[in-house]
Amino acid sequence: MKFLYSIRSIFSNVFNFFFKRKIRSFFLLLFMIVVILTLNLFLSLPDVKGLINEIPVTTSMIDQRISENSGGKIKFRILKKWSPFVQIPPFLKRTVIVSEDIDFYNHKGVDYYELKESIKRNLQAGKKARGGSTITQQLAKNLFLTTEKSYYRKIKEFFIAKRLEKHLSKNRILELYLNVIEFGRGIFGVGAASEFFFGKRVDQLSKIEIIRLISVIPKPLRVTPLSDSEYIKWRANLLINRLYRSRSLKEEEFIFLKDQFRD
Question: 144 with 168, same domain?
Fold first, then answer.
């Protein structure tokens, strides 16, 4: 019996030794993978300091759309026109903020409440059901990333947004955003969109036209600001209500604009 007990003890000790070594090896490997991925992430982050003064020649979003439409029967063209911050109407800036990021001038690139709510909603839905991206995060995606839906892209977007906020003023971030976002097939920026859809410079747009234009930001390839679709009416009314609640519209303006988008 003592002999059998000794044999069992030896086997047990040997098993525990190799098992513990495997566990240690596993965690060491896991640690090394995390370190490599972290280094790769930070080394691949773009230098954003040039954006303080420079106008981007192109963006990742533009490059993606060109790639997606290459080889098609219909020639794909890019329409873009830079509009300086001072030439963009204050009402348009305010409409974008209430549409996309109401706390834009208060947060530091990331709205942690919206981030938490989007993660919770997405987990409940089992898919991406809510965005939660700030204007700064959307700018990071448009300038440097793609529309790919992955956690890795969202992590990169997070850190690029923090860099943008560190080196650029809020007004510069908003200026860049308004000049690079998509408003239709091949149409980028409020300047190009104003001329294409309304035949006007951006500083000549009426409040109705501004609301129509900003209403398409969530779905630029599926809706047009010139339509009277249910989506445009719903989105326009949402923006008008938000503008009124934020005291960006007088009561008579609120009533007038609501009348323009009734069913």
Answer: yes
Q: Give just the sign of the alpha carbon dihedral 136, 137, 140, 141.
A: negative
232 shares a domain with 177? yes
DSSP state of 75: P
End-to-end CA distance of the chain: 91
pTM for this model (two decimals): 0.83
Say yes or no: 69 and 100 in one domain. yes
Under DSSP, is residue 44 helix (H, G, I), strand (E, B) or coil?
A: coil
Smallest CA-to-CA distance from 93 within 105, 79, 81, 111 is with 105
- Rounded CA gap, 220 and 192, in Å? 14
Is residue 229 domain-shared with residue 253, that is, in the same domain?
yes
**Residue 21 to residue 36: CA distance in whole angstroms:** 22
The number of domains in the chain is: 2
Domain holding 153, by residue range, is: 52-260
Please report, rounded to a whole number, the percentage of residues in the chain having pLDDT higher than 90. 67
If one counts every other C-beta atom within 10 angstroms of the C-beta of residue 172, the result is 15
Distances (CA, A) of 37 to 163, 170, 233: 19, 31, 45
| pLDDT tens sequence across 44-65 | 688 999 999 999 999 999 999 9
pLDDT in tens, 102-140: 999 999 999 887 777 766 666 665 555 446 799 999 999
- Identify the CA nearest to 190 among candidates 261, 84, 104: 84
Residue 3 and residue 120 in one domain: no
Residues 57 and 40 in one domain: no
Stretch 236-259: mean pLDDT: 97
Are 2 and 95 in the same domain? Answer: no
Tokens standing for residue 124: 């409940």
